[in-house]
Write a structure and sequence with these properties.
heterotrimer; B: 741 residues; alpha+beta; 5-stranded antiparallel β-sheet; 22 helices; 10% strand; C: 123 residues; mainly alpha; 67% helix
């Protein structure tokens, strides 16, 4: 076979595979991905029974433990809004007030209830370098 | 000394800027003296960076809290080793380390090439200086490590306890060495493209830097994984965290590059591909640094989110990416080659396939890592993809890479006959099939397709590498009659790239077998136990024997001793601890000892077949009432002490602090004297140790491949190609006479 | 102390950086790097020994690199034969091809060295 034709065939095969891979990646990302919401967005958009990824900073003075549950509030980085979360599961070592966290939550049942954190879904940023603006509202 | 540091940083920036212009001027005007002067400027920059680094490190070690970063990142109670290394736990210190390493490696590269690739070096030098200028500029303008505070505090904030771990002190320099070493072949590739000298020489002079970068990045990744496993209390070593991925992506692309440059060296093929790969690795090194330094992606590692730094980095990445693409497109005609693949049954074809898969792996990691930003750009919302999205793509690609890692060593360059191929494949395939059959008989294994595939492919790799060593030793012995160990040593010594590479393949295969086993067959359980109670995990009985506790003004430790037994026979004793470090909270004199930073000390019994791992998560709620009372009482007493005259105040405060320490000790001892239930995470994981051993083996192979051949004097006449298995000739002929025979 | 450090570093840097420029303006300017040490002891294979700069020298260096790579290929093919990866027929064919390619490079190298010798030497 002509070498340039061979090259063209190989290129076509490689491009086809690459396109298939790209398509699978895009599909997986949008179908399996979870939207990261700030506290303000969560309060606006959260519907009962649906899970969301809450991103924000642990409000100073909001961390308490009752039995197995860890209670804390996550504040919005840009607005004076905080969301109370009741979480059970593994608590990452770096977790503390003032640290940035990601936690998967769903709205609790009952009016006025906060959010319930999905077990073992809490992640925290590295503490030694993170400098959070002081916030105790 | 801070003033000296600030001035020296400015001097460093001036050196970098001068070097950039001197190199470009020398390149344009053919002025060797300007290029040489530029090279000296790089040496000077490296020297100045080293002096700045020493000044800063001395400040850390001597706890000079007049420097802001020392006050925020160290303390008098931080052990000296961690104080010396805390410099790169800060944003500014790590940027300074980056400049030091980049200027150091650049100096080494320029020294090594001072008489070679003379048309390429000026441009490569200019690129390196441009990068040095960028990072030094960041230091001088936005992240000066010599910023002082006045008055200087008497005590610093301290190094975060999670970082007080030996691996974490070595991990950043290793990663930064990897990133900065990658920029050397990157710069020389740009030099080659700009000058049009796209032959093989620039690859030869920078190959070792690429290999060293691969080695350093790999070691950095390994250390990070080890820290995660032994320090963080979640029991894993890899979480597809964005910053973990930031090191993995350039490592994968670099792996592809160091393989495919062999094809260009031998066949003159894949010039476009290699140029694109090396430029991509350089861009990824900058992207990786950006990911780590910015707060742009949610990660356990992400640091200060500084918009100024972020914008600067994005600008640099844009210039690097766009410039790289433009250069490759501009020089595509020179990069074109007429050489063809002789056969799909050849090492070239295997390398090409492996390259595609490695780049695909990097693309998958890149896409999922940056998807939050991509989705935000498209939809306006940040959508994050969890770690569970990776395996469906990574697993099959990883299996393919491992399989090809076994095929590569046993297939020759150019072409091979089917008969020879069958002969070469027979033993490794048989070994792999045997392993699969044996494993299939083990209950519970068959259902784990990924693990089985990796076990089979891993066995294939190890068998093929072993076969290569045996064949090589036998071939040498047939000619030299040496003893096997001597033949082996000399075989490896004369063919370091080849056999070092084989060892790397075996190490990577073993490491991935460890990953497959530990992820597929892990047994994990969370149990709430009181002393005396026990729980079963994967056939082991784990009993909470007794609690432990210790208290000092720097740290409270609450721990547990656990006895592990199997079929009533003792297997191990584990000691796990939870460390509580006091916060700076002024409102809670006692409570601040319980609401600061914390860290876990893992209880670990590591073995060749499995690891038994545990952490304790003690609940301090039973102490909360006493803590609150202590806060109130001691708080009142401290306030009253403040109203006393100075001489009496100091005395009273000493008494109160001693009282406070006694309360802390008493509270802590309650955990032992009147223990309550604690939560334990218990994990039994098979073959985790294979991951560490495999990685060490791979690093050893990399070192062997990297090690230079012994120096010999230059001969004017080219010698004939030496027999790869025999000792050097006494009377060399010219190659022309040899080839004409 | 600060001033001393700054002064010393500045002096060393200026001396180092300006050295080549000042030397280039002298009568017996050498292109070889005085920092590298005695060129006679340079032991890197393929290093051009000529004192002159020029694209010819780079071409020679490039051809020497290609030659060294070709020699390595020949060695690798021989090793593949000895370790049983290649049949005798395949080895003969590959070896012949490689040696022909090596001869081509050597001829080009000879031509490049001839033209480099014919050039007037740098003053």
């Amino acid at each position: 076979m002509d070498p340039s034709r061979k090259r063209a065939i190989r290129l076509s095969v490689a491009l086809t595979v690459a396109l298939l891979l790209a398509g699978a990646l895009v599909y997986t990302s949008f179908s399996a991905g979870r939207e990261e919401l700030t506290a303000a967005q969560l309060l606006r958009q959260a519907r009962p029974g649906q899970s969301y990824v809450l991103a924000g900073t642990v409000l100073n003075g909001s961390v308490h433990r009752t039995g197995d549950a860890l209670l804390f509030s996550v504040r919005d980085p840009k607005q004076h809004v905080a969301v109370p979360v009741s979480y059970t599961g593994e608590i990452p070592d770096p977790f503390a007030q003032g640290r940035a966290v990601l936690v998967t939550v769903r709205r609790g049942s009952g009016a006025g209830s906060g959010f319930i954190g999905q077990q073992n879904s809490l992640t925290t940023k590295c503490p030694s370098k993170y400098k959070a603006a002081a916030a105790s509202y | 000394m801070a003033a000296a540091g600030r001035v020296l940083l400015v001097l460093a920036l001036m050196c970098a800027v001068y070097g950039l212009f001197a190199s470009l001027y020398g390149a344009q005007r053919g002025g060797g003296a300007w290029v040489h002067s530029g090279r000296r400027a790089m040496y000077s920059l490296a020297g100045i960076s080293a002096v700045c680094f020493v000044i800063l490190d001395v400040a850390f070690i001597s706890s000079d809290f007049s420097l802001q970063i020392v006050a925020s990142g160290s303390s008098t109670t931080t052990p000296t080793f961690y104080r010396a290394a805390a410099i790169w736990a800060t944003q500014q210190g790590s940027l300074l380390l980056w400049v030091l390493l980049l200027s150091g490696w650049s100096s080494l590269a320029l020294l090594a090439t001072r008489r070679r690739v003379r048309e390429i070096v000026p441009y490569a030098q200019a690129v390196l200086f441009a990068l040095c200028t960028f990072f030094t500029g960041l230091l001088v303008l936005f992240a000066n490590p010599f910023t002082t505070i006045s008055p200087a505090p008497t005590e610093g904030a301290g190094l975060d306890p999670l970082l007080r771990h030996t691996t974490m002190m070595i991990h950043p320099p290793m990663l930064y060495s990897g990133y900065t070493l990658l920029l050397v072949p990157f710069a020389f590739a740009i030099g080659a493209l700009v000058s049009g000298r796209v032959g093989v020489e620039w690859i030869q002079v920078t190959r070792r830097f690429a290999l060293a970068a691969w080695l350093c990045l790999g070691i950095g990744i390994l250390l990070g994984a080890r820290w995660s496993y032994t320090e963080l209390g979640w029991g894993g070593y890899w979480a597809w965290d964005p910053v973990e991925n930031a090191a993995l992506m350039p490592w994968l692309v670099c792996t592809a590059y160091i393989h495919s440059i062999m094809i260009q060296e031998k066949r003159g093929m894949l010039k476009v591909w290699n140029a694109s790969l090396v430029l991509l690795t350089g861009c990824m090194a900058i992207v990786g640094t950006f990911l780590v330094r910015s707060g742009i992606l949610s990660s356990i590692h992400a640091f200060v989110s500084d918009p100024t730094l972020n914008i600067s980095f994005v600008g640099l990445i844009a210039v690097a990416v766009i410039g790289s693409i433009a250069l490759v497109v501009w020089r595509r005609d020179r990069l074109r080659t007429d050489a063809q693949l002789d056969s799909l049954l050849s090492r070239e074809a295997v390398f090409l396939g492996q390259n595609m898969i490695l780049v695909a792996l990097a693309a998958v990691v890149f896409w999922f890592t940056f998807f939050p930003l991509i989705s935000e750009a498209i939809t306006g919302n940040k959508i994050s993809v969890g770690p569970s999205a990776f395996p469906p793509f990574i697993d099959p690609l990883a299996i393919a890479v491992v399989a090809l890692a076994g095929i590569g060593p046993i297939i020759p360059w150019r072409r091979v006959t089917p008969a020879k191929l069958r002969a070469s494949f027979a033993f490794p395939v048989a070994a792999a099939l045997l392993a699969l059959v044996v494993l299939a008989l083990v209950p519970g294994v068959v259902g784990h397709g990924f693990a089985l595939a990796i076990f089979g492919a891993g066995t294939f790799v190890v068998a093929s590498v072993a076969q290569e060593f045996v064949r090589g030793v036998r071939a040498r012995q047939a000619m030299t009659r040496e003893a096997a160990p001597v033949a082996l040593a000399r075989l490896v010594r004369r063919n370091r790239r080849r056999y070092g590479g084989y060892i790397v393949h075996a190490g990577v295969a073993l490491a991935l077998v460890g990953v497959a086993a530990s992820t597929s067959f892990q047994h994990s359980r969370t149990a709430v136990l009181a002393p005396g109670q026990s729980v079963s995990v994967d056939g082991y009985r784990i009993r909470y024997v007794r609690p432990t506790a210790a208290a000092s003004p720097q740290k409270i430790t609450l721990g547990a001793i656990l006895a592990v037994s199997s079929r009533r026979r003792p297997v191990a004793t584990l000691h796990t601890e939870y460390g509580l470090y006091p916060s700076q909270d002024p409102m809670h004199a006692i409570g601040r000892f319980f609401n600061g930073s914390d860290e876990s000390r893992v209880g670990l019994k590591a073995g060749l077949t499995q690891d038994i791992w545990t952490v304790i998560s003690p609940n301090v709620t039973p102490l909360q009432g006493l803590i609150s009372r202590g806060d109130v009482l001691l708080g009142r007493a401290l306030l009253q002490a403040q109203t006393l005259p100075p001489a009496q105040r100091a005395q009273q405060l000493n008494v109160l602090f001693a009282y406070r320490d006694a309360i802390i000790r008493e509270l802590t001892q309650r955990f032992v004297a009147r223990p309550w239930k604690a939560t334990f995470l218990l994990i039994v994981s098979p073959l985790v140790t294979w991951l560490w051993l495999g990685a060490i083996l791979a690093a050893l192979g990399g070192l062997i491949a990297l090690w230079p051949l012994p120096r010999r004097s230059v001969r004017r006449r080219p010698s004939r190609p030496r027999d790869p298995l025999r000792a050097p000739d006494r009377a060399p002929e010219t190659a022309r006479e040899r080839v004409a025979a | 102390m600060d001033l001393v450090i700054i002064f010393v570093v500045l002096a060393v840097a200026i001396y180092a950086i300006s050295g080549p420029l000042l030397a280039a303006r002298g009568p017996a300017a050498e292109a070889d790097d005085p920092v590298a040490g005695d060129p006679a002891t340079v032991i890197e294979p393929g290093d051009p020994m000529s004192a002159s700069d020029g694209p010819e020298l780079d071409l020679i260096a490039e051809l020497e690199a290609a030659r060294d790579a070709k020699y390595q290929e020949i060695r690798d093919a021989e090793l593949d034969l000895r370790t049983g990866k290649l049949s005798d027929e395949d080895y003969q064919a590959i070896d012949q091809t490689l040696r022909a390619e090596a001869v081509g490079i050597l001829h080009e190298l000879d031509r490049a060295r001839e033209s480099e010798r014919e050039l007037p030497s740098a003053s």
